[in-house]
Amino acid sequence: MTLSGSGPRTLARALVPYPARSAAHLARGHARRLRDLGVEAYVRWTVLKAWLAWRRAEGVRAYRVISEQAARARRRSDTVFVFGSGWSLNELGSAEWAHFAAHDVLGFSGFVYQDWVRTDFHLVRGWDYGERNADRRWLRSARVYAGHIARRGRFTDAVFVLQDEYRAVFARTLLGCRLLPPGATVLPYRTARGPGMGPSARLADGLSHGTGTLCDAVNLAYVLGWRTIVLVGVDLYDSRYFWVPPESTVAFDAGGEMVPAPVNFRGATAADVHPVVRNGLVELMGDWAALFARHGVTLTVYNPRSLLAAVMPVYSAAPSASPRRDAAPAEGRTVS
To answer: Is residue 334 part of a domain?
Structure first.
């Protein structure tokens, strides 16, 4: 990493070894969680993580764990479509979905709610962490999530790319409690540790979480060797999601289901710019696009209205878009 700028923070980064800075960052994170959750909930989370570390060792035996090389061998194309959960997915036509299916499909997080396309890889990191006492419904949320995977029939042959480290509560719940389909294929990963937010080149080095789970998914696509990476449903100009009515955003109910809501747990309404934009996601993805280009990899965005269109090319090889009216959620529709 090349240091730039000046001042006390830059000097500290130059003088203090990365392991010490990393430990300090971790300590600050624990202090914030203790402050936000309170002592009782903080202790419950700590005990839960230890219990899941034990359950993971048993649960993983129910699945087929593959290597980075084996995952690379499952690619059917040099192009991968990485799917977010933006409402623009409802605007895509059948010819476009057929185009995606002719290549590789990588989903993450809320893409389990879709019923449009075969999913080849699906990355899972966190889910249902945003509210106080979410730890009391951690297993219910995981069962609901796994139910969507099993029910939709779009993940039959998917590789489930799961965060696999001590703090990976949600992904390790799926693994340790054996909630994924029996015999599913699993590719574990850990979060990259380093002084910056750039992507890693090997899975052994972890995946960069950057400013959100989109970074994990894009880093995975780079690591597994696709030459063209296309971001679909990563709109960012609002906080709408494809499985709820267009005037709503989403929140978790008491049963762990993500349902329509006027305000999400980050305090955003449907019309608000997605909160990750404030964390610098757009600028970071622009930096990654430039870095990938130097290595012969193209990072593009599918939706020309996406905020990412300002920092990377818009994908142009798909059929002309035509509204998929039969796929758009009707007023008040819920997904089951």
So the answer is: no
